[in-house]
Design brief:
Helix content is 39%, strand content 8%.
Length: 251
């Protein structure tokens, strides 16, 4: 079920145990080949695929389309909000949902810059509403082992606008992918312990802006991307997501 496609009467009739999913996305540069909407389109893609398989067991809210992207602001078109604004926006939406009687809340993240602040939101809401079930997940963390096995480029291939995000966009919206501009990320050297990407976490967090990490805005290797791989990623992620949503329906 899609929240804003229902009437107020229909929302009132929905089982209040139904998990309500809020996509946490971003509007930011993804190199010269992917659109600014990449994170939103990917998050909504997974939600739509989930909805196809269990339409009556999930309720999907309107997406938060602008997230915490201050580290991308050196690249034109990127939009950002502060951590405080992000927290308040998520809290206000979730509190509206709770006010309507729903008890299972899923924060589904599709942007790396939302991970840490998302955890803060989860902990704040969890303490404040002890009778509500909250879950926070980031799509590339859902089935890490299977995604690592699918990854061709190894470490530093899937960081940003790389192998995986480009594969998904070739599947979701190929008309928005500038395939003639595909190129490897122009990575700047750093400490070995600070290197990492979606699938391979660094030993320690070392803050650098995106431009300090890669001069062309790509961290990874989109040359290894394909729509076929996008379909494989979709199945892996949604199989894992479906298990979590099914479990929450039983709470």
């Amino acid at each position: 079920m899609i929240w804003d496609e229902l009437t107020t009467v229909q929302i009132d009739q929905v089982n209040k145990n139904t998990p309500v999913l809020l996509i946490l996305a971003a509007t930011e540069q993804h190199g010269p080949h992917l659109p600014l909407a990449t994170d939103r389109l990917i998050g909504e893609h997974f939600a739509k695929e989930l909805h196809k398989s269990i339409p009556n067991k999930i309720l999907i809210l309107p997406t938060i389309s602008v997230g915490c992207s201050s580290h991308h602001m050196s690249f034109s078109g990127s939009l950002t909000i502060s951590h405080d604004t992000f927290i308040r926006q998520v809290e206000d939406i979730v509190e509206s949902v709770i006010q309507h009687g729903f008890t299972n809340i899923v924060l589904f993240n599709s942007h790396g810059g939302n991970q840490a602040v998302g955890q803060v939101v989860l902990e704040k809401l969890g303490i404040q509403y002890s009778n509500i079930n909250f879950v926070l997940m980031t799509w590339w963390k859902l089935a890490l082992k299977a995604l690592v096995e699918l990854n061709e480029g190894g470490p530093k291939s899937t960081g940003h606008a790389g192998e995986f995000e480009t594969s998904l966009m070739l599947l979701i919206a190929p008309h928005l992918v500038s395939t003639k501009k595909l190129k490897k990320g122009e990575h700047n050297k750093t400490f070995k312990w600070a290197e990492g990407d979606m699938l391979y976490s660094p030993t320690a967090s070392y803050f650098r802006t995106t431009k300090e990490m890669t001069t062309n805005g790509i961290y990874g290797n989109p040359l290894l991307a394909s729509a076929k791989k996008g379909r494989q990623i979709t199945k892996i992620v949604n199989d894992a997501l479906k298990i979590i949503i099914t479990d929450m329906n039983s709470l």
